[in-house]
Amino acid sequence: MYDIIIIGAGVSGAAAARELSRYEADICVLEKEEDVCCGTSKANSAIVHAGYDAETGSLKAQMNVRGNELMGPLARELDIPFKRTGSLVLCLNEEDMPRLQALYDRGVANGVKDMRILPREEVLRMEPNVTDSVCAALYAPTAGIICPFELNIALAENACVNGVEFRFNTAVEDIVRLDEGYEIRTDNGTFTARCVVNAAGVYADRIHNMVSRNKIHITARRGDYCLLDKDAGRHVGMTIFALPGKNGKGILVTPTIHGNLLIGPTAVDVLDKEAVNTTADGLRQVAEKAQLSVKNIPMKQVITSFAGLRAHEDGDDFIIKEADDAAGFIDCAGIESPGLTSCPAIGERVAQILCDKMGLKKKEHFTAYRKGIVHPAQLDLDERNALIRENPAYGSIVCRCEMITEGEIIDAIRRPLGAKSLDGVKRRTRAGMGRCQSGFCSPTVMNILARECGKSIYDITKSGGGSRIVAGTNKDTL
């Protein structure tokens, strides 16, 4: 029997695992997909929100502000890129100024630091490509941008190094209460634990409702995005928001941590919790509404589009607590935006709940620091040459768009919780994320995966499961 089982390996589950790995406990993470970061955590706006949007006193507000505060130190410990670029919320009509002021007042009440309401002239000096119809904006310098893949993977890797076990391709089918703890029945075996953390994203309601009479309901809210080439990455220097509406913050325009430009998302409630397909109407809305905030967006430079699902709970707030009628069952549910920002605080809160309940003791030795994948393209010439002399694989360019080498891909496969698929390599190294969207590099990446994992090329997948890529040879079809 494990002390703690965490269901879900997105940013919330991984953050909880990392915080709990500071303590003497036998911990396992169950994930239905083939890797970490395969759900909401891989398809979002990649923004660290300042914290002015959530209702004062809500758990969202508390976790957002605390998560923002923790993100800088966490990024340094885990060796992942993070930048405080700031954000602007645009007011386009004088009659909407009370709404902008209310947003500022809420931010102050939430504890957001250094906000200002800027006049039109100052907004345009800061961001010349903002629409000419802007009359004022709320400026929040503590907002930032991060790579959600690297954050999620780094949290999980660090938890693994500190003793947390991860079981992939393991979907929970039922949970049965025991006299002490829970029996978790999956499609890949049965597990028992004294305590359970439910961090199952859009499926957190189903997991909760297996053990509790007090039902919760989560709606999958789909958001479509467009990603533009790095040539467009400097079109704006910070995240540009419209004034938020009832379904969220609307269509935003933001630089990414890797130099692209991202626009989106829409907000469409869907019944299918696997409906991550984009729609023509959704992408049209993204393009049209983004232009209301930022002018001259070079839409011809879109290199890909994608959609993600947000876990919207009917109560419109995070649920992070022990279930009232299920002792030892800790919900981490309804984690929609600002969930990415909040994840360090969510992990901290889950760990504190379980420490208080189980009397966990801190380990004598905890490894807080992780070294990320070395990227030769970010080194100076002397450092790069020295690295190549030590390991010639770092001199072999595989992905020309992102300048990713064979050495980086090998590292991504061999490190803790290493990549097992094309998407796993992509999220760890960015091989295939550039202008050609893996059109050039995918065969070479597949060959490296086959070699390093000891598999046939026919068994290499895009993202696990039945997503095999090679069906046969040309001669087989003749």
Structure description:
It contains 12 helices and 22 strands. By secondary structure, the chain is α+β, with helices and mostly antiparallel strands. Among the domains are: 83-144 and 219-311, D-Amino Acid Oxidase, subunit A, domain 2 (D-Amino Acid Oxidase, Chain A, domain 2); 376-470, Orthogonal Bundle (Arc Repressor Mutant, subunit A), CATH 1.10.10. Strands 1, 2, 9, 10, 11, 12, 19 and 20 form an 8-stranded mixed beta sheet that branches. The radius of gyration is 22 Å and the shape is globular. It starts with a strand and ends in a 25-residue tail after the last helix.
Nutshell version of this structure?
The chain has twelve helices and 22 strands. With 478 residues, it is of the alpha+beta class.
Q: What is the average of the pLDDT values? A: 96
CATH class of the domain at 83-144 and 219-311: Alpha Beta
Structural class: alpha+beta
Quick one: CATH superfamily of the domain at 83-144 and 219-311? Answer: D-Amino Acid Oxidase, subunit A, domain 2
**Main beta sheet:** 8 strands, mixed
* C-alpha termini separation: 55 Å
Q: Helical amount among residues, as a percent range?
A: 25-40%
Give Rg in angstroms. Answer: 22 Å
